[in-house]
């Protein structure tokens, strides 16, 4: 039985969400669900649970009724700490199965009449019955059906496309019902193969039956068509055999002919059986690939790592299908779809557009910066050769030389925090410079206990130095008279190797990037969780990275792979942009609000749009 469906989902929040899923393995089997959930991270948690429920249903061994009950029980276990309303349904052949708990609704419209399906049973009780052609089944949250009210029947008279368009527009404006609106409309359609097949009556379709009474799918026990022809040939040959002379030679000839014919029939049956098995494998693999692709698309923003895994499964299942039928039009169409949508699913983009934001020679001839920082809408750059410190306003592109040799001496690294610039100078120590009036204050004088200070970063009035040779992060705290003596940021029990560190960033936690691609994360002096997850390949020769208290994500300048990686602050993959400049740039900052990435390459700053 062919099915056509539409879904409507209203506004959702992180605390309350209503969602749907329709997952079809083939024309005969489908899994459907409505979930309304109230808890922290409700949307992401709910979406992931529905996907897992569909996988559980199709993987579970048993009848459709057993599969649905087991899936219902398994899903409920996941929401013992949350407020949930759950409706699960399955369609197998012409039979609809339902099981529900909470404020949900299910209606059947047939020949102009509407039946409330859940009124036939009690909560958590399995309900089943037959479907007819052109039936319409509505599964929804209770709030959705109440919102329809007297328009329920009228809404079910529309096509699935009209239903989805009209009601999506309507519920999408209901702020007061955020997290409460979700619905699936299923329409059974006419199929050529259904002619002459007796279908259920209206009473049967809404009958509540026990699990033992639920009809299983019909399995054909008829012999293949090759057998009657073999039997007929055998009878004819037997009669001929009786009329032939009784000599051994004649009988031998007839016996050989008979054996050949019977063997041909058996061979034909074997070929047909083999072809039927191959056809089943092909259909299952192709359907699974289509489902994998649809799941990957639904997860591309919610869970990019899982989306990547589902996309790989789609490719794998498609390869199984095309190995059987390389030229099948449906398989070829799916292959084209996967190829065209892969980059979008993986949030993987390519660009050749790196417009020049600013030529630093316009500020000072032969100006060559080594690092770049961003704060308060301003960029800060230091040229350690010409010993010049420059600030640039992003909006106006106006620039200002803040300090020179007299102020910063052998300045090597600089960082910006609002209107305060901090410089690490080999001969003058750590300096603080007010960019509004160029006033210079000493934070710390040169210290003989410093080793190889590779960078410094200010945060919340404190100043931090990463000392790679001493394996330390030094911390300076403001006092009434200036700044304290250096303190060790890392706790005594924290073991870490900073010898390969190339950059440091702070967003309340401290992050250190190493030359081999590791990112070390610390919180209150102890190691914190950061693990790459979902990358298609490892980070290679990174030059820098960016994260701040104002940014949602963490960005890695993966120079060896000529790409910008976009990650969560714990390391999970969210996306990437590939382009030549990501391989040659030495530093970067990201303006998420303005959706721009700024890249430093020698005497020039380039920009690229943030996808």
Automatic annotation (TrEMBL):
Residues that span the membrane, as ranges: 252-271
The keyword Transmembrane is assigned to this record: yes
InterPro entries: 6-blade_b-propeller_TolB-like (IPR011042)
SUPFAM superfamilies in the record: NHL repeat
Keywords, comma-separated and alphabetical: Membrane, Transmembrane, Transmembrane helix
Residue segments, region Disordered: 195-221
Keyword hit for Membrane: yes
Protein name (Swiss-Prot/TrEMBL): Uncharacterized protein
